[in-house]
What does this fold into?
Amino acid sequence: MLPNRIFFTGVPGSRWSGIAQTLEQIPGMNTTDRRPDKEYTHHEYSGHKGAYFGRGMTDIVLHPDALDQEWEDPSAGCKIVKSHEWVDWFDRIEKEPLFAGDWKMLVYRPDQTSFAWWHEAGGFEIKYPDYSAYENSANMLAEIIRVNNKILDYGRINNCRWEYFTSNWVTENFGYEINVDHVWPDVLVTLIKT
It folds into this structure.
């Protein structure tokens, strides 16, 4: 059974948005946060779809009502709540009884390849979400390194098993068969069910 929310995180350029969109094909996922003003397409990829939380994006207010207001129908299934910054909030999320039963999903891709892909996808020209709060490429790379280190540390502390994002992984962790059309050899995922 799916939770109410999955707190979903990865650094810019980690291909986490594509993974989230693949998971949103699972029956029972809520995609009512998708609107034309919350979408960005690059190359042949669908890029970004739906609400993103954090610096320069929708403000993080750690209360279900505040998070859920981005969805037209917040009660319609499981919401993938995306932020590059959740790893900074996990301690508070774990202590908040209102998030009991919600899951956490982490995506890891090495720093330099994430940084390069973020630039390839548009970098500071990305129309949604807004990355201007990072100011310049040096700050962005420093933030990618910082967040990736925290993601790996959080995974280690929680004895997480890092795996490739494959159709089998989705079936094993979510109980549904969906097609993962491309497995990236430098992208690893882990899911923490609480």
Summary: The two ends are 12 Å apart (CA to CA). Residues 13 and 114 are 4 Å apart (CA to CA). The chain has one domain: 5-192. Residues 5-192 form one domain.
